[in-house]
Amino acid sequence: MTFDLIVRNATLPDGRTGQDIACADGRIAAVAPRMDAAGAREIDADGQLVSPPFVDCHFHMDATLSLGLPRMNVSGTLLEGIALWGELKPLLTHEAVIERALRYCDLAVSQGLLAVRSHVDICDDRLLAVEALKEVQARVRPYLDLQLVAFPQDGYYRSANAEANLARALDLGVEVVGGIPHFERSMADGAASVRALCEIAADRGLLVDMHCDESDDPLSRHIETLAFETQRLGLQGRVAGSHLTSMHSMDNYYVSKLLPLMAEAGVSAIANPLINICLQGRHDGYPKRRGMTRVPEMQAMGIPVGFGHDCVMDPWYSLGQADMLEVAAMAVHVGQLTSRDAMRAAFEAVTTVPAAIMHLQDYGLAPGCHADMVLLQATDTIEAIRMKPVRLAVIRRGRVIAETMPRVIALRIDGRPDMVDPASYAPREGGDPRL
């Protein structure tokens, strides 16, 4: 039998080695060692890691690549970023939002990032960004899954027309209901917004993803309300709380009550390590809080935790390159997630876990799944986080859509090797300690 594509001698994220992955008609047809079959194209993975695509479950594509417009965020703070976005919104054009988003998607694909959940601001009465990103969504569908969240950036109740605008955005086909309860004028309004927005999602059969408690205030506890409303309305498995940075500052007794409530309600969590540690703790002296939520404690409770990039070169964050392994590496360092199992879980937090949070269909490396995968210049998932390696091939529906040459450095030192391959430095458990 001849397949459209066979990736030979791959290492899979679960540790299996020497695996061949055969693709036909845009789907994975078989995964097995040393298949006796031919492919119209064959790629020798040479024992390197083949992963399902990277997934970013929290991003702001309407703002991406706008750094410097109309000015820089001089302080680098969250509040100046929000103010700056307010200055930029009236200046946005349909064409410019589309062009920046398409350029970002090009960069994402080159990094093996093939699925993005983007919050889109609905507080602009023109709904310009919504309409622009709906067009982008259609244009990138052949090579990237873009899921949109109706996000009332200025507050569902605090912004005059947000209620009507959010309904209009959902009518235009935005798939997820968003919110930002900690930005409302009072705790009571924040709780009321969670209740109202969850009811909208329940009525329309939609998913929920709320910016929740993105604050250093340990008394910002809207995630508790979100968990309650999830259970009350039967939304289990359809709701995510994003950021949850106040949990970094909460007292341990309260968290010991909160995490079981989240687990019981089936609420997922999304941390944004790069942005959370940059924007939180700005009022602190020393010791200085870094703000990332309690990732290992939630994972231990069985709460799904995904990692998002959040921002790339926009009013809130002047760095970033669409690299979800950079996101995972930052989480590992800040969260002290350095056990072998914790690092493997960090890789899952930018692949399989966010795919489940987004309800992506037919995602993975099993027969019947979409033939979407990434070949990395690394031998396993921990090495991938350590190295943030070259994506040798990015495959979408069985077709190679991006390729990069291996990173090999020529060395000019007498008595030493001519070449250095960074991937060759992977540890060998149980190997000869003299080597």
Short description:
The protein has helices at residues 78-88, 94-110, 128-140, 162-171, 187-204, 222-232, 252-265, 273-279, 295-300, 324-334, 340-348, 352-357, 381-387; strands at 2-10, 19-24, 27-33, 38-44, 50-51, 54-59, 113-121, 145-151, 176-179, 207-212, 239-243, 267-271, 305-307, 373-376, 391-396, 399-403, 409-410, 419-420. It has 435 residues and is an alpha/beta fold.
Radius of gyration based on Cα positions = 22 Å
CATH topology of the largest domain: TIM Barrel
Number of domains: 2
Distance N to C terminus: 43 Å
The CATH class designation of the largest domain is: Alpha Beta
In DSSP terms (H or I, runs of 4 or more residues), the helix count works out at 13
Low-confidence stretches: none
- Give the name of the CATH architecture of the largest domain: Alpha-Beta Barrel
The strands making up the biggest β-sheet line up spatially as 6-7-8-9-10-11-12-13
Helix content: 25-40%
Overall pLDDT: 96
- Give a quick account of the main beta sheet: strands, pairing sense, barrel closure: 8 strands, parallel
Q: What proportion strand?
A: 15-25%
Domain Amidohydrolase: 41-401
Protein name: Amidohydrolase family protein
InterPro entries: Amidohydro_3, Metal-dep_hydrolase_composite, Metal_Hydrolase, Metallo-hydrolase_Enzymes
Keywords: Hydrolase, Metal-binding
